Amino acid sequence: MVHELKLCKRFYDAVASGAKTYEVRKNDRGFQVGDALILRAVTDDDTRAYIPELDPISAEISYMLNEGGWGIENGYCVLALKNVHVNNSQQEKETMDNKTTIDKLKVAVAEFVRERDWDKYQTPKDIAIDIVNEASELLEIFVWKTETDMKEMLGDAKKLEHIREELADVLYAVCLFASHANIDLATAFYDKLDKTAKKYPVAKCKGRNKKYTEL
After folding, report:
1. What is the mean pLDDT of residues 57-66?
2. Domains along the chain?
């Protein structure tokens, strides 16, 4: 049997992260071990309104503790959860990001430049300046914006399109520099990530925003 249940946001986050592996529920649905659960996030306030941007969690009841023992209130039960999965519809959709490679982007940029005979204007200095300029245009969108403003912007199709375009300009310039300088961007990225990880070991920096020299 499948049971569709509401789940307060604070508990949704805990179940989704794996920190909470059980549910305490009023036993009014005839829950049984092996039943499937669909847990939908709702607000923590009294309205218990659904939060549509959060995908439902699917899970299976692996064990039950019923009323009459272990301090469980009459009419309630404890459900142990297994096979917990966030049904992330956005991540499961096929996107260009999971169909392309960095090399394909670099080739596309190089071809774009070659067709327009712009190679003669491309020097490391000029491309580096372009990276900074494009990043500044992206930053300008968020100047003086509050957290509420930015959330609204990311939820507005027209404003999000503007942000996408500015971000794409930054990526274009980065790919152009890598292509011009014959830099394997993926290798450079992972090498730098490895060095940064050594500067910021999890044991010392988790939950802290200090510079590595201050840890």
Report:
1. 91
2. 2-91 (2.30.130.30), 94-183 (1.10.287.1080)
